[in-house]
Amino acid sequence: MSLVRDLMTGEGLVSRLLPGKQSGLALAMKAFGLFGVPMLGWIRPEVVELDDERCRLRIRFRRRTRNHVGSMYFGVLCAGADLASGLLAVRHAAKVNERIGLIFKDVHGDFRQKVMGHCFFECRDGAAIAEGVRQADWTGERVNVPTRILVWAEGGSPDQPAAVFQLTLSLKDQSTSKAPR
Questions:
Q1: Closest CA to 135 of 167, 172, 161, 105
Q2: What is the CATH number of the domain that holds 158?
Q3: Nearest to 91 by CA among 23, 176, 25, 32
Q4: pLDDT digit string (tens) for 68-94?
Q5: Residue of higher predicted confidence among 43 and 169
Q6: How far apart are CA 86 and CA 8, in angstroms?
Q7: 31 vs 180: CA distance, rounded Å
Q8: What region does 72 belong to: left with phi over 0, alpha with psi -120 to 50, or beta?
Q9: What percent of the chain has pLDDT over 70?
Q10: Residue 139 and residue 131: Cα distance in Å, rounded?
Q11: What is the pTM of this model?
C-alpha cells in the first residue's frame, strides 16, 4: 500500500505510528504544501472533516490570507475551494487506482459577502466524485465531474454562504497503457 493511500484512508503503517486519521492527513497536507503546491503550505489549511461523502476545511484569517482591504484574499478562497473538492478526488482515487490524475477544467465563483474572519469550505459531492473516479479507471477516458463548494465565514449564517464555487474536476487514468477490464 502506498503512502498516499495510507494517508488518505487512514490505514497501514502511518495510522499505527500517528494515532487518529487526522494526524496522518495533517502530515499529508504539510508534505503536499511543501512539495506539491507551495501556496497551500503558506496559507496552512486545516482539514476539519474528510470522509467518502464530504470534505470540510478551515482557513484561518491572518496576515498571510488577508488582502489590502482587510478581507480574505481572493486567491486564498479559490485555493480552499480547489482543495475541498480535490481532497475528495484524491481520497477516492487512492481507493481505486492511484494513477488517476486530476486537474480542474473550469471554475466559477459567486462571492456574496466579504469574508472578514476564519472561513470554512465544504464540498458534499463525494458520491459523484467517486463515480467519476470509477468511470475514469474503467474506461481510461477523461471524465468531467462538476462539484459545488460552499464557503462560510466563521460565525456567519449557515443558510447564507459567503461564497459558492462551481469547479469541474477532470479525471483521467495516467497509466501509459490501459486495457478495458
A1: 172
A2: 3.10.129.10
A3: 25
A4: 999 999 999 999 999 999 999 999 998
A5: 169
A6: 12
A7: 34
A8: beta
A9: 76
A10: 12
A11: 0.80
